[in-house]
């Protein structure tokens, strides 16, 4: 039983505010990613939870108990570091056993726990080797096994896959998910890679400039970004933002006008996921000038402009569109996000 | 094409090879010949004369005692200094700079500094008199006070020679990524355990270099001893100096020089064996 409550954490380095009153609750057994570009404060937040950094103000509660001021070892957590931090002068066995040794566990328990963790991560055959003999992926497994061997209440991971090559990252991602699902440990996972966050997490907290911009399930964050930043950061291609005029509460888009939210003025920003469109004959659809058409195999990527603003849309690979064409697009009204041009925040979903 | 130019690397190292041969290997061979010959024929006479000398055993004993007393203390102090300075953010460079000042002072000057402190009319006695601890000037550096003299020389040597150990240790500590210590901390290691189980094993190469360098230098101790103790505290290099300059006997002086070299080489071999550096187990 260990939920984590992050309560109005602030952190300044001199005059620079790395974290501006961040609050976040992570439920017991939940996997939450802190996602954001570098410098957004996600690693600082993780290090404050770990006890490697002190916050300027605010509180962190693990399992209902405030841990501010406690040293890391009394917080009941384990951590996986970006560059693994697997001790090079110890065998893999001793690395995995390190946390248990520090707890003065007896040899029988150490052996049982090490073998269990090594089995989960398939590193049994390397236990008597030194880490420098291992590949990056294997070292990453050792780091995760070391963290799981102590059966922590909370597992913190700081960009654990970013030093691996792309193929291995995909493989380790799937494996991490399997292992952590069966362990049921409350996990906070820091990453700048949105596909990792989308694939692994129960919920994602998107951070930007020391603020949590949105917390939600991967699908919610993807489909209903709370701010322009979230929409632009998540998804490939990123969400399109098109400034459109509003007349009588409606936005013209081909033959079927869209209903804009009531709060809008003369203009609104239409947030459009690239794949939430269908090809339509020109007078019926919204006009798009295609500058480049790229058949990607799995889909057709079009780059061009709508209302003279740059957009990227994705069509099924069965469609044929050539560079220079002018096409019509039918928008899915349920998958449109309306955003305020002034604040960049989204209006509540129109369907609600 | 590359075959035609295979001599270029040799040409490039030629100056340094010539330099070494001329100024190191030739004098070395000459010294060895000087030590083991008499009037141009090989002879153990010089070595025998060296060993028969009244100061021979004393100088060996003194040199070893001094080395055993000084080197571990210097290593410990350097580790403490290195660990302390690692925690300093601003001003770190200034602290390191001040700490390395003794490196720039010649050993004779360092000896004279400590002489001015410890001689009969020195600062130390003045202080003790001023505080009323002593009633009259005490003598610290005479042959009647061998313990005090040994202690004074050891302190002066520690003061003078710790900086070089610290420089090497600090460089070694800088090589240890912060994450190792943080990981150890997360998994429950206290500061003491982190130091013994993580930091020390990871700076083995630096420890090895520092110990070798410092021990070899300790066996060559001379100027500080000469300034503080004169002939009251014979050491190996001091004896070599005396035979060379006072006695004008170059053969026995050379024998001492060879002996010092053998001791230094042996010490180096012992360190290389004792503190094994396995590149596989380094970061």
Which structural traits does this protein have?
heterodimer; A: 352 residues; OB fold (Dihydrolipoamide Acetyltransferase, E2P); 6-stranded mixed beta sheet; 5-stranded antiparallel beta sheet; 24% helix; B: 283 residues; mainly alpha; MetI-like fold; flat
Question: What does the model show?
Answer:
The complex is a heterodimer of chains A (352) and B (283). With 352 residues, chain A is α+β, with helices and mostly antiparallel strands. Chain A has helices at residues 42-50, 92-102, 107-120, 136-149, 166-183, 194-200, 218-223, 228-233, and strands at 4-13, 16-26, 31-35, 57-62, 65-66, 77-80, 154-158, 186-191, 203-208, 211-216, 240-245, 250-251, 258-259, 267-272, 277-280, 286-295, 299-306, 309-316, 326-331, 336-339. In chain A, helix 2 packs across helix 3 (107-120), helix 2 packs parallel to helix 4 (136-149) and helix 3 (107-120) crosses helix 4 (136-149). Chain B has 283 residues and is mostly helical. Chain B has a single domain (55-281), classed as MetI-like (MetI-like fold, Orthogonal Bundle). Chain B is 73% helix and 1% strand. Chain B has a two-stranded antiparallel ribbon. Chain B starts with 7 loop residues before the first helix and ends in a 9-residue tail after the last helix. Chains A and B meet through strand 6 and helix 2 of A and helix 8 and helix 9 of B.
């Amino acid at each position: 039983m260990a939920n984590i409550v992050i309560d109005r954490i602030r952190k300044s380095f001199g005059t620079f505010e790395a974290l501006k009153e961040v609050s976040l609750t992570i439920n017991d057994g939940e996997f939450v990613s802190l996602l954001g570009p570098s410098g957004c404060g996600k690693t600082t937040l993780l290090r404050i939870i770990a006890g490697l950094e002190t916050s300027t103000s605010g509180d962190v509660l693990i399992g209902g108990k405030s841990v501010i001021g406690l040293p890391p070892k009394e917080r009941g957590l384990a951590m996986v570091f970006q560059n693994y931090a697997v001790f090079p002068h110890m065998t893999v066995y001793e690395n995995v056993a390190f946390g248990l040794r520090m707890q003065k566990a007896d040899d029988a328990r150490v052996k049982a726990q090490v073998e269990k963790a090594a089995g989960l991560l398939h590193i049994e055959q390397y236990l008597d080797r030194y880490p420098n003999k291992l590949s990056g992926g294997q070292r990453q497994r050792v780091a995760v096994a070391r963290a799981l061997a102590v059966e922590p209440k909370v597992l913190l991971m700081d960009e654990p896959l970013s030093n691996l090559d792309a193929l291995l990252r995909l493989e380790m991602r799937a494996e991490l998910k399997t292992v952590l699902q069966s362990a049921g440990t409350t996990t906070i996972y820091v990453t700048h890679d949105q596909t990792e966050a989308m694939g692994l997490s129960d919920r994602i907290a998107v951070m930007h400039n020391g603020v949590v911009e949105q917390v939600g399930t991967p699908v919610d964050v993807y489909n209903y970004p709370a701010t322009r930043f979230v929409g632009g950061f998540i998804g490939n291609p990123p969400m399109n933002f098109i400034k459109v005029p509003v007349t009588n509460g409606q936005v013209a888009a081909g033959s079927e006008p869209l209903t804009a939210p009531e709060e809008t003025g003369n203009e609104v920003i239409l947030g459009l996921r690239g794949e939430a469109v269908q090809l339509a004959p020109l007078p019926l659809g919204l006009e798009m000038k295609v500058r480049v058409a790229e058949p990607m195999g799995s889909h057709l990527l079009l780059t061009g402009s709508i209302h003279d603003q740059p957009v990227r849309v994705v069509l099924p690979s069965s469609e044929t569109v050539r560079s220079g064409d002018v096409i019509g697009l039918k928008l899915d009204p349920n998958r449109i996000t309306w955003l305020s041009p002034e604040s960049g925040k989204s209006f509540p979903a129109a369907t609600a | 094409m590359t075959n035609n130019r295979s001599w270029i690397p040799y040409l490039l190292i030629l100056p340094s090879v010539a330099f070494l041969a001329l100024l190191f290997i030739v004098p070395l061979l000459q010294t060895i010949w000087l030590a083991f010959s008499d009037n141009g024929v090989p002879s153990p006479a010089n070595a025998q004369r060296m060993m028969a000398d009244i100061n021979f055993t004393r100088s060996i004993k003194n040199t070893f005692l001094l080395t055993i007393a000084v080197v571990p203390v210097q290593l410990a102090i350097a580790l403490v200094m290195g660990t302390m300075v690692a925690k300093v953010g601003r001003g770190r460079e200034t602290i390191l700079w001040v700490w390395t000042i003794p490196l720039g002072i010649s050993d004779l000057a360092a000896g004279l500094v400590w002489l001015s402190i410890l001689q009969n009319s020195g600062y130390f006695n003045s202080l003790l008199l001023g505080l009323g601890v002593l009633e009259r000037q005490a003598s610290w550096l005479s042959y009647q006070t061998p313990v005090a003299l040994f202690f004074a020389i050891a302190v002066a040597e520690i003061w003078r020679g710790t900086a070089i150990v610290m420089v090497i240790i600090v460089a070694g500590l800088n090589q240890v990524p912060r994450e190792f210590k943080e990981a150890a901390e997360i998994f429950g290691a206290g500061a003491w355990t982190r130091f013994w189980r993580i930091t020390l094993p990871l700076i083995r190469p630096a420890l090895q270099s520092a110990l070798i360098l410092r021990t070899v230098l300790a066996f060559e101790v001379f100027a500080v001893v000469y300034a503080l103790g004169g002939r009251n505290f014979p050491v190996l290099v001091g004896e070599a100096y005396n035979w060379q300059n006072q006695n004008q006997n170059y053969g026995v002086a050379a024998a001492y020089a060879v002996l010092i070299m053998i001791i230094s080489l042996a010490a180096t071999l012992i360190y290389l064996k004792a503190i094994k550096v396995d590149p596989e187990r380094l970061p």
